[in-house]
Amino acid sequence: MEVPRTTQNEAETPPRGSRAWQRRQRVAHILAAAEAVFAETGFEGASMSALAAASGLPKANLHYYFGTKEALYTALLDSILDLWLSATDSIRPENDPAEALAAYVRAKMHWSRTRPFASKVFANEVLHGAPYLGSYLAGELRSLVREKSRVLEGWIAAGRMEPVDPPHLFFAIWAMTQTYADFEAQIRAVLDRPELTAQDHAQGTETVLRLVLKGCGLRFKAAASMGASMGE
Amino acid sequence: MEVPRTTQNEAETPPRGSRAWQRRQRVAHILAAAEAVFAETGFEGASMSALAAASGLPKANLHYYFGTKEALYTALLDSILDLWLSATDSIRPENDPAEALAAYVRAKMHWSRTRPFASKVFANEVLHGAPYLGSYLAGELRSLVREKSRVLEGWIAAGRMEPVDPPHLFFAIWAMTQTYADFEAQIRAVLDRPELTAQDHAQGTETVLRLVLKGCGLRFKAAASMGASMGE
DNA sequence: AACAAGATTGACCGATTGGTCAGCTTTCTC
DNA sequence: GAGAAAGCTGACCAATCGGTCAATCTTGTT
């Protein structure tokens, strides 16, 4: 069930217009279309014909590029994982705790707004027991959390923030930020919006920042109020 | 696509051992088995034969009781919804904000621990755009949030808590608490556990309480530390 | 005891699923 | 420009899908 992570994304780009370059273009195009389909219907709910229709290609063409539906799915997961790991750069011992955590929350919220489908595909995978991502979660992600937790513990020991359990703080941040992508249907319904606005996301970011920063005993400056998020 | 909510769950219980009583028993038994299957594989991923196998009944028997897979699914959703609405009782104007919010968080965390499958079924439904729950979200849930938001606004106006945007505070609480059910696979992997322990949940509850209460400018008393949640 | 209503289920159905493949076209290489 | 390699796709496949139904068994009523 577990999939070994490839490193294809780190290979250098082939010359523009070449055969290999065109292949990458098409693969990327298929993956982009598949992201939306998998996000909306899940792995089992996404049929190869639906994936083909979404990319505007015949079904047999998808099989030519990826072999199986599973391979297409894991290739997509692989391309999504980089996003997960990239946002923690700000959390380094020499940085200011408040600024570092704020930057992390903002990065996660930004990712929720700009790549909601990627977030949903990831969420769906984990929700169903992470059959393909299990080894990644127990490997790279666990290492990352361990490393960043040590940074937080350093700040706590130095009295620069209050003693919050670092892994659980990460779980809370992930949950609060990604909920704006994963559970967007619920948030939209409650706020009575056809779709979430930039202001909704700003209000969300502000609220998450408030909880995280004050929860860690750090300074938090409220932005100028834009009014209540629900009418009447 | 939308499903009208039934009120079957409010009818009185028929005499024990009677025909109607036995029918309810079987329906409840099927729903309990279906909850696990739908939670683990989603609506599309759960086949009628898998649902039949999980309940130990022939497939045709499920169709006898529920007619279609969709009807079985919506009946399950309906039984889950009551849980969602029941935990907000503590949020009333005359209560203490800190105690009320803490009780709410604790209730949600408790539900995540004891009914993880129900949480996952709900999460899966919303994740895929809430095709069956849309009307409920825009109806009962929106009304509930409006009502409870007014309570929080009252507390804010009275200076009993800081000005947190009430709907977004609810989104944050829902996300942080249900993540222990919905994304349990991820949390388990990061914490390196075969399964989440009571202590993990206690640590999680403590962290969520800290963020919510301090985020609202309310008093928070840390429980005695039980040690770091990650080894090393 | 007789009958009706409810409960049960193996066998079957058309539709759709993921996947294959032969045969065609396009592009690159020499 | 000839041959090889890569790209492409309509037609097809076995397996599985959700759902149906006639036949049988069980239970409650009289």
Automatic annotation (TrEMBL), chains A, B:
Record InterPro entries: Homeodomain-like_sf, HTH-type_TetR-like_transc_reg, HTH_TetR, Tet_transcr_reg_TetR-rel_C_sf, Tscrpt_reg_YcdC_C
Keyword DNA-binding: yes
GO molecular function: DNA-binding transcription factor activity; transcription cis-regulatory region binding
Superkingdom of source: Bacteria
Biased composition (Polar residues): 1-11
Region Disordered: start-end pairs: 1-21
Residues of the HTH tetR-type domain: 24-84
Start-end of DNA-binding region: 47-66
One example of a Gene Ontology biological process annotation: negative regulation of DNA-templated transcription
Pfam (any one): TetR_N
PANTHER family membership: HTH-TYPE TRANSCRIPTIONAL REGULATOR RUTR
Protein name, as recorded: TetR family transcriptional regulator
Species in which this protein is naturally found: Teichococcus coralli
